Write the structure tokens for this entry.
Amino acid sequence: MSETGDKPRISDADMLARFQNSKKRPPCSDTLGMRLAEVVQDERRIRMDFDVPQMFANPTGAVQGGFIGAMMDEAMSTCVIIDSNVTMTAPTLEMKVSYISRLMPGPAHVDARILKRGRSAAFMEADCFDADGKLVARATATAIPMPFKRLS
Amino acid sequence: MTAPFDARAYWDPILKGAQLPGATAFVGFELIDYSPEDGWCEAWFTLPIEATNPGGHAQGGFITAALDEAMSLAGSIVQDGPAMSPTLQMTTSFIRPVPIGQRLRGRGCVVRRGRAAIFTEGWLKSADDKLLATATASCIPRAMNAYDTK
């Protein structure tokens, strides 16, 4: 549970539905073929599925590392929003990604979790897996939690 | 003996060509200049609307993607022959919000070129020279023909 005493939680299933049915997805979510697949609020983690477009390939045919970073940033940022019960967003200050293995375009997923969400800083971690479940990248990030403003 | 590798003859058509790889084209890459001798590459980047985050700015990962382009190119052109520099680890600091649809100046440069590892750093600035993001990375030198692109 969070440290900052947010309003009562909705169930994991309701939270998942809320995101999956959202009509206010930012463009970057659609660009990455992102879909929130699992929410476990007690464990402060989420799983996000992606379908990485061919256009993000580098000359070797693998996904360019920055876009793997984009997927992980997306998952870690969403994890903060959910962990705060959709009261906070968290602009990323710094993100470090270790590229463990190649990722080819197509299906992939990211597991993201909160390490700590304090008042002035949030720490997150994420793992990216390919379609066979092989770990391809790990990321850590820090962010500043800020009151959530809805997109107009 | 074969002629020594002419880096500019090799890289000019790739970096100035119309057929940029998808990832490179997505971040709006336009070459400014590069130096195979000193290991740096500067380019304009324009992030497309598809990179917009809920706050209306560029999502951090796409900023990382632009920096990765400039830094990986620096790591590639510094090698003696057609080569790439797959990134092992990269850290990006998001210093200011990065605008969408505006030309940004990006630079990647080689900090140290070792036999087994290349260290790079890079920055992204607005057109009026405000620092927006910085990054450091480590990568491995790899000759292009070492790739199995199957």
About this structure: Residues 60 and 104 of chain A are 10 Å apart (CA to CA).
